[in-house]
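Hey,
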Amino acid sequence: MPIHYYLTIIFILIGFYLLFSLKPNKTVAFKRPKDLLISIIIPARNESKRIQPLLESLLPYKNDMEIIVVDDHSDDDTKSVVMSFGFQVIQPKKRPKAWKGKPWTLDQGVLSASGDIVIFLDADTTIHKNGIEALLNIFLKTKTPLSVQPYHFMKRPIERLSVFFNVLVVMAANAYTIFKHKLTPRAFFGPTQVMLKKDYLDFARDPSVTNQVLEDIYLGQSFLKHGKNIRSIIGKNIVSFRMYPDGYHDMLSGFGKNFANGAIAIGMIQAILLSLWISAPYAAINILLTALISGEAFLMPILIYVVFGLQLYLFSRHIGNFKPTLILMYPLHALFFLYVFIYSFFRIYIFKNNVWKGRSV
């Protein structure tokens, strides 16, 4: 068997190492202590078309928890949509030059909050039934800063091109490896976070965090740098989101904003492992095409191709509502991933033109 066959198999095995214990958390009954003050903070900029499902999912908590939407000077009617649900809306003060938009918005929300515990929710998330209880149950066991990657709910086939981005984000966390209890988590997810207000004020206002587009990853690093443990989990059955419902251009801008930066932020070893795994689909495709064109025996090439597709589907079904068609159709997703990564690299590092929601980031 040629050496590149063995290398591809090794790349696939790295994936099993990185997500060996991937499975959803169990939701259990939880009764919140009466003296526990909780503030839910939602940063929002031009989210009028996306925020309504979140607001609807939070209605059961309206009388029990402080819910603050921080409207970051939206150009649309985000504020009126939020107010129609009866939730509190504030606007941040003028942003200092040393802060990026989202870190400043979150900070303004925390300074307005009265809770001992803060829960950050992106405007495109949706809380499942008893989801807040599940988050608190997990968090209060150790009071370790918690981040959650929401379950990705998609409605259109084009949205499922995101599969490699979704899987890589979870892999980057270093939270589901064979040695997950011995290794330090590497990524702190941004869409959903739970922490003590004191921990936020102590660690999230560090300049290494406030001036970053990917403030979530750098917040995790700030915690770790100061000896504070972190925890990162997937959100199936707890919280979900629909990332880019507007289609291709929205996906391109959103993923482009995050991914070239994220590859650098997670650390060298983790980046190498992820790079090796993401090489597997391209290697498997190449092996199969070469065998078909040359007329060589292609039983092993087909096996390698299908094994990677099966692995990708087994991982992705816990991360989003991806379909079994991935097992055979993943080359389309791989091409999209490669295109977005190259686009992101040139846009950020060559042309230095990275705009998101009307702002340069």
